[in-house]
Write a structure and sequence with these properties.
- There is one protein chain.
- The protein has five helices and four strands.
- With 157 residues, the chain is α+β, with helices and mostly antiparallel strands.
- It has a four-stranded antiparallel beta sheet.
- A hairpin with a 6-residue loop joins strand 2 and strand 3.
- Helix 2 packs across helix 3.
- The longest helix is centred in the N-terminal third of the chain and has 13 residues.
- It starts with 5 loop residues before the first helix and ends in a 17-residue tail after the last strand.
Length: 157
């Protein structure tokens, strides 16, 4: 793990809140000069602590009103089958996040679709026919109680 000091953590916390902050804005918020903020930001980007910047887009306003958690069990448990499944997921824009798990199910997928018909197509025409998949279980999200808003990077932790 990379060693981060209190100022690095402050900088990261501010950038998580607003990735568009200029070095001048950062300097005012964390008490460093703009040039020091620029050097720290560049180092954090180079070391891949900051992996990128992106817009937080409202999926519902984009017509993706259905959020679903899908549990998947693989047909066989070997490296090649897991690689085939990973390649399948990489090309599916409906899959927002995917997790390989221990326990009863092999994977949990966070999936967004337009509606039930789109979900049905995704499950029945994309996932289930794939040779790596044995079983699929879907759970429709009724309410999102908490969305990811960043890591806990507070220097006060």
């Amino acid at each position: 793990m990379m060693q981060l000091d209190r100022l690095d953590l402050k900088l990261l916390a501010e950038l998580q809140r607003d990735g568009r902050l200029t070095n001048n804005d950062l300097s005012e918020r964390i008490g460093l000069s703009p040039s020091q903020c620029s050097r720290r930001r560049a180092r954090l980007e180079e070391d891949k602590v900051i992996r990128g910047y992106r817009a937080d887009i409202d999926r519902q306003k984009m017509g993706l009103g259905l959020l679903v958690v899908i549990s998947v069990t693989l047909a066989t448990h070997n490296r090649d089958n897991a690689k085939r499944f990973a390649r399948l997921l990489a090309d599916l824009p409906e899959v927002l996040e995917a997790f390989s798990l221990t326990g009863e199910m092999d994977y949990h997928l966070k999936v967004a679709t337009k509606d039930l018909a789109a979900l049905s197509h995704f499950v029945n025409e994309v996932l289930l026919p794939h040779d790596s998949v044995q079983h699929v279980k879907t759970s429709i999200v009724l309410n999102v109680l908490k969305d990811f808003e960043g890591l806990a990077v507070s220097p006060d932790l």
